[in-house]
Amino acid sequence: MTFTLFGRWQIRVLLLATVGMLLTILLLVRSGSSIAGQTFLTLIYLGLFGLGWDLVYHQLQRLRWDGDWNGLLQLAGAVWEGIFLVTIVKVIGLPGIDRAGFHVLGFIGFYTSFSLLNSIVTHSLLRILSPYSRFNGGQWF
Fold it and tell me: Hey, how many other C-beta atoms are within 10 angstroms of the C-beta on 107?
């Protein structure tokens, strides 16, 4: 399925609001509020930067001969977004996230779990819950 830009945005926001939020709540219960508070902000920044990255991904997708964006490219995009966010936090800093207290290994664990769950949900559960969205470029409305 080839997603439209609006479809990509809808799916990204949906997954951040469900999978990302549930994973962050699990982290809150397990680790304590100080780490989870920064993780909520990290999730918001992932969403904001991700909406911008989707503009780039959409243009790159149009250059491919089949016009599709396969799982390997999704993985590469996820790795790039993770590296980008860690670099921005450590070099420039983001409001609400402590540069010195930002745990890179904790973020890698969270982001890896988040990315894997997103991939699983995108390729299985979303296709079951909305079988006709593929005819609309991933758009739900």
Answer: 20
Tokens for 75, please give them. 């993985």
pLDDT tens-digit series, residues 17-70: 999 899 888 887 877 656 666 778 888 999 999 999 988 888 888 787 766 677
> Is the pTM here over 0.85, yes or no?
no
Q: How far apart are alpha carbons 114 and 23 in whole angstroms?
A: 7
Residues in the chain: 141
pLDDT at 34: 60
For residue 97, the SS3 value is strand
Note the helical H segments in 16-64. Answer: 21-31, 33-63
Residue type, 39: T
- Domain range summary for the chain, segments of one domain joined by +: 5-136
* DSSP-assigned letter for residue 103: -
Three-state DSSP at 68 gives coil
Rounded distance between C-alpha atoms, residue 110 and residue 7, angstroms: 25
